[in-house]
Amino acid sequence: MVSAGIDLIVVQDILGHADIHTTMRYSHPVPERKLSAVEALADFGKTNNAQIVHIKAKFL
User: Fold this and answer.
1) In the Cβ-directed half-sphere of 25, how many Cα atoms lie within 13 Å?
2) Which of 2, 15, 31, 32 could be bridged to 27 by S-S, CB 3.0 to 4.6 A?
3) Residue 18, exposed/middle/buried by CB under 10 A (0-12, 13-18, 19+)?
4) Looking at per-residue confidence, does 17 or 40 come out higher?
């Protein structure tokens, strides 16, 4: 499920694990998903940096 993009918390709930660490023990990172996560973080930073600069300029 994790490799299909299902959130780890959802997988935990479906499997009935009381502790997220149990779910994590059986899930393994998929290289393509790691790359997607890094790209999403980079895009997030680009978008939010522009907003932060705009907000700072407004108060200066």
Assistant:
1) 6
2) 2
3) exposed
4) 17
HSE, CB side, 13 Å, CA atoms: give it for residue 41.
6
Q: Which two tokens stand for residue 33?
A: 């998903």
Q: Which of 38, 39, 41, 25 is nearest to 2 (CA)?
A: 25
pTM greater than 0.70 (yes/no):
no
In the 3-class helix/strand/coil scheme, how is the chain assigned residue by residue? Answer: CCCCCCCHHHHHHHHCCCCHHHHHHHCCCCHHHHHHHHHHHHHHHHHHHHHHHHHHHHHC
Give the number of residues written for the chain.
60
